[in-house]
Amino acid sequence: MGPIASTGLKPGRDADWKAPSAPSPMEALLTLISSGNVLSFALGLPASELFPRELVSEAATRVLESNQALQYGSPQARLKEHIAGMMSDRGYPCSPDRILVTTGAQQALALIVRLLLGEGGSVVTEELVYPTFIQVLKPYKASFMTVPSDLRTGIDVEALEERLAQGVHGAFLYAIADGHNPLGVSISPSKRRRLAQIARQYRLPVIEDDAYGFLCYDGKREPPLSAYDPDGMFYVGSFSKILGPSLRVGWLVVPERFLRILSTLKEAADINTASLSQRIVCECLERMDLGAHISGLVEEYRRRRDCMLDAIRRHFPPGTTCITPSCGFFVWASLNVDIDTQALCMRAIEEERIAFVPGASFAVGEHAVARSCLRLNFSNCSPAKIEDGIKRLGSVTMRMLQSSRRSE
Amino acid sequence: MGPIASTGLKPGRDADWKAPSAPSPMEALLTLISSGNVLSFALGLPASELFPRELVSEAATRVLESNQALQYGSPQARLKEHIAGMMSDRGYPCSPDRILVTTGAQQALALIVRLLLGEGGSVVTEELVYPTFIQVLKPYKASFMTVPSDLRTGIDVEALEERLAQGVHGAFLYAIADGHNPLGVSISPSKRRRLAQIARQYRLPVIEDDAYGFLCYDGKREPPLSAYDPDGMFYVGSFSKILGPSLRVGWLVVPERFLRILSTLKEAADINTASLSQRIVCECLERMDLGAHISGLVEEYRRRRDCMLDAIRRHFPPGTTCITPSCGFFVWASLNVDIDTQALCMRAIEEERIAFVPGASFAVGEHAVARSCLRLNFSNCSPAKIEDGIKRLGSVTMRMLQSSRRSE
Known about the structure:
The structure is a homodimer. By secondary structure, chain A is of the alpha/beta class. Chain A contains 14 helices and 15 strands. In chain A, the strands form five sheets. The first copy, chain A, has a five-stranded mixed β-sheet, sandwiched between helices. In chain A, strands 11-12-15-14 form a four-stranded antiparallel β-sheet, covered by helices on one side. In chain A, strands 1-13 form a two-stranded parallel sheet. Chain A starts with a helix and ends with a helix. In chain A, helix 4 crosses helix 11 (275-287), helix 6 packs parallel to helix 7 (131-137) and helix 12 runs parallel beside helix 14 (383-406). In chain A, a hairpin with a 7-residue loop joins strand 11 and strand 12 (330-334). Chain A folds into two domains: 3-49 and 292-406, Aspartate Aminotransferase, domain 1, CATH 3.90.1150; 53-287, Aspartate Aminotransferase, domain 2, CATH 3.40.640.10. At the A-B interface, helix 1, helix 2, helix 3, helix 4 and helix 6 of A face helix 1, helix 2, helix 3, helix 4 and helix 6 of B.
C-alpha cells in the first residue's frame, strides 16, 4: 500500500466516493461502445456532419494570424456581446456583464455547485437526472431531496412546494426547462412562472441547465426559466450542440452580485476558458448567419426525431409509449411492462450491437418505473440508421419479452 | 436582498471566502495593467512572439479536415504517448496510462486538491506560494502548515521533517522543484531525494507543480521530484510555456490507483479537455522538432534573464540581491531595506507605468522579508524593454528609498 491511500485521503471520502474499481454505468457503456462496431443511441452527441467545420477552420486560420491568439487572455468582450445577443433571441435579454464564459456547460454547472454547496449539504433535483451532473455532487457527499416529474408536463411543482413548505431545505434546485435530459419534456410557461415564484418564496437558488434550449422543434420557443427571476437563477448555456463540443465553450448568466466570486472560482479551476477557442467561436459568430445555421440543425434533428418516434411505433412492443420531445436530443421510451432495460441493454449490445442508456442510470434513488424505460438519442444517427437500429432493438425487446413471458 | 444571498449560501462559506468586493492583489494589478500602457514585469506570460504560431495554424487546418475534430472525444491516446516521450526526456519515464490530459496545469492542480483535500483540512506549503494555487484552496477553508524556504537552496526540508515529526498532518505538500514561483530557486538532487524520503516516511502526498520544468537555462536538468517516488507524488505538467497557454492543455502523471477517480473528477469538471486543442497539440508534436524548439526558447529566455539580472545590478539600490534562477520565468529581488514593495508597486505604476508583483502577494501568512521583495518576470519583454523598465523601476525605488530616509 502506497503512502497516500492510508493517510492523505480522508477515510470518509475514500470510502464514500472513491470506489476505484467501479466504473459508472455510463462509463461501462462507453467502453463497450468504443470497443466495437456498435450502433449507438446512447450518448448525447450532436451530428458531426452538421458542424460548420469549414467555417471553424477558416476562423481558426484567421484568428491564428495574431500571436496573441496563443497567449493567455481575458474573457473576450466581443464574445460576451454575441452571447448577450443570442440570449436576447432566446427570450432572456441580459447585459454582457452578467455573462461568464466557461469551459463548456459542464464547467458552468461545476462552478455553481462549488459556489452554492458545502460538504454534506443537500440539493433538490428531480428523480431522474443527467448523470454527469450527479458526478459533480459526489465529492460534496450531498444528500438529495427529489421531486417527481410527469412525462408530459415535467417537474411536479406542487410536490416541490409541498416539500419546501414542510421545511425541506436545499442549496439549490437543478432544473431543465427545455429538452429535459433524459425525459425530453419541456415545461409550460405557466409552470415556469409558478416554479420561479416558489423558488423565490422559499429562497431556493435555481441552476437552469439549458444545453439544448436553442434546438426546439415545434414552433414557438419559450423564454428560459431564468427569465422569470434573473436575480435568483443561474442560467447555463453551451455552444456544444450548435458549433461543436470539442471547442469547450459554454456560458453562465448569473445574478450580478456573484460575478466576482465566480470569476475567482473560474480562475482557480483553469485560469480561463481556452482563449483560442473563445476567439474561434467569436470569429465564427461574426462570419455566420447563426439563425440560419440553427434553423438547419433544427430541421435535420426534427427529421431524425420523427423518424425515431415512427420507428418505435412500428417496431417496439405494443404498449410502449413515448412523448414527442419538442426540444433536445432524446426520446424517453416507456415499455410499460416488467422488462429490466439494463438487462435489455446488455442483450442489445451482445445480440445486435446496439446501445442505449437504460432508464435506471438516471435515477437518483430507486425508481421502479425508470427500470423499464430507455433513453434513446436521435441526433447522432442518420434516419436510415435510426430505422434499422430501432427495428433491431425492437426485435431484441420482443424476444426478451417473449422469453420472460414463457418463464412466468 | 435577493433570495440566494440570505439562504442558499452556507453562511460560513459566505463569510469566509465569498468577499464579493475584494479583488485579489493580482486581479487589481491585472486591471491596472490592462487599463493603460504599462510595461509589465508582473505576470508569468511567455513571449507571444516565440509561440510556434504558423505550426499551430497549419496543425489546426489539418485537424479540421475531419468532422470528428469538433465532436466530443476521449483523451487522445497519441497525445499521451507524446507526453510520455517528453516525460522520458524530462528524466521521469512513465507509461502513457498514468497520464491524464487536463485543461492546463491549473485544472490539474484543482483536480488533485479535489481528490486529496476535504473541507476544513490542512495543507503543507512553503511560506511563499503561487497565488492562484492558494485560490484553489479557499473554498475548502483549508488551514496551512508552512515551511520556510531558502533563496539559494529552496524549501527547508529539515524544518519540514521537524514539523511532521511533531505530528503535524497535512492532506498534501505543494512543491515546485524547478523554477520556483515566485523564488526562482531549483532544489538539488540530494534535497529531492531527502524530500521524497520524508514525504514517504510520513505518508504525505506531494503535488509537484512543474509548469516551468522544461525551461532550464544552465546545463543539466534534474529529474523532477516525482521521479523519486512515483507512487506517492502527483506530477503536473503544461504546454502553456512551450506551445501556448490559450490551448489550455496540461497533464498529470499520477499513481495508477488514482486514475479512475481522477478521470471521474475530470469528467465532472468539464467532460474532457477541449479535444480540438488536444488534436492540435498532437499534430504539432508530430510535425515539429520539440527539442530544437525548446532549445530556442531556452536560449532567448536565458538572454532575457541575464539582461534583467544585469540591469538590476546596475540600476537598483546597492544591497539589492537576486539569485540567478536556473529555470522558469522569474527573478526574485530582495531590496534588503525597509521598503514596502506594495507601496513601491503602486508608485511605479503611477510614476513610470511599470508593474511587478510585490513579494507580500505570495505570502500565505505574514512574511516580514517578502514585504521588501519583488517578483520580476523576464520572459514577456524584449531585452531592450527590460533594460529600460528596470532602469526606471530602479529610479523609482531609489527615490522612494531617499524619501523614506529623509522622513526618518
